[in-house]
Specification:
alpha/beta; Rossmann fold; seven-stranded mixed sheet; catalytic activity; Epox_hydrolase-like
């Protein structure tokens, strides 16, 4: 099949078996999904996990021809064709990656065995149109940020609902590294074209096992706009977690892991 883009996605691959493709969020890289999924799949043998970096993020280049989200989706479609061929796969999308994952599901409905969305962009792509709760801190460890690099502290506190030594560690390892690697010039070019031409929910409903998990205190994408997705995903479990913001995967790791395990089990039973 002819390639749609001129870019190739850097990716990390772990394990063997049924493919699991995981797409990260805006400005980040593969670590944000690898960091939360690998502890889960360590106890689930038989799955091949693929973690690509989106163009302009991580170690994937974004040439001038990559000008918007349509091009990001094309790059992901090329990656699927190159790495998976005709093989069916499970699909995970985090934040903006959830928006792309829904569009990929519409483009390849027969190939996606199940869809999991973690704090996904909902029906409102433009942040100014989202229904968002005010920023809120529910757990704050005294002295946590003493001596922390100011940029790390600023990025961490912008979204953190649970501020502890552990969540700060996970933020540094899973989130901050991606932020520092991002191609700011490319992202500035892409920023004005974040809405896809293809409506992810514009086709037939997706009737395979789905998980949508949102943070009750998520002030980045919220949890209200995601509720409107449910009619399109009749096999979806929809969970809104308290004490959780946009990084709920490491603010509520045990519950997050249990929900992912349940989703994987439902996909296996459906097959």
């Amino acid at each position: 099949m002819p390639r749609r883009t001129s870019t190739t996605l850097h990716h990390i691959e772990v394990g063997e078996g049924v493919p699991v493709l995981a797409l990260h969020g805006w400005t980040l890289d593969h670590r944000v999904v690898l960091g939360c999924l690998e502890p889960v799949f360590a106890g689930l043998p038989g799955y091949r996990r693929l973690y690509p970096d989106l163009p302009g993020m991580g170690r994937s280049p974004a040439p001038e021809s990559v000008a918007g989200s349509d091009d990001l989706l094309d790059a992901v479609l090329d990656f699927v064709d190159d790495e998976l061929g005709d093989e069916p796969f499970l699909l995970v999308g985090e934040s903006f990656g959830g928006y792309l994952a829904r569009a990929l599901t519409r483009a390849r409905p027969e190939r996606v065995l199940g869809l999991a969305l973690v704090c996904p962009v909902g029906t409102a792509v433009d942040r100014t149109e989202r229904v968002l709760p005010p920023p809120e801190v529910l757990e704050d460890e005294p002295g946590l940020l003493d001596g922390v690099d100011p940029r790390v502290a600023e990025e961490f506190t912008e979204d953190a609902v649970v501020r502890t030594t552990e969540t700060l560690r996970r933020f540094r390892e899973d989130v901050m590294v991606g932020i520092e690697l991002a191609d700011e010039t490319a992202l500035a070019r892409l920023e004005g074209n974040r809405r896809l031409s293809l409506d992810p929910e514009g086709g037939a409903p997706f009737t395979r096992p789905t998980l949508i998990v949102a943070g009750r205190q998520d002030s980045v994408v919220g949890h209200v706009d995601q509720y409107a997705l449910l009619p399109h995903y009749p096999r979806a479990s929809f969970a809104v977690l308290d004490l959780a913001g946009h990084n709920l995967q490491f603010e509520r790791p045990e519950l997050f892991g249990a929900l992912v395990v349940d989703w994987v089990d439902r996909v296996a039973r459906h097959r």
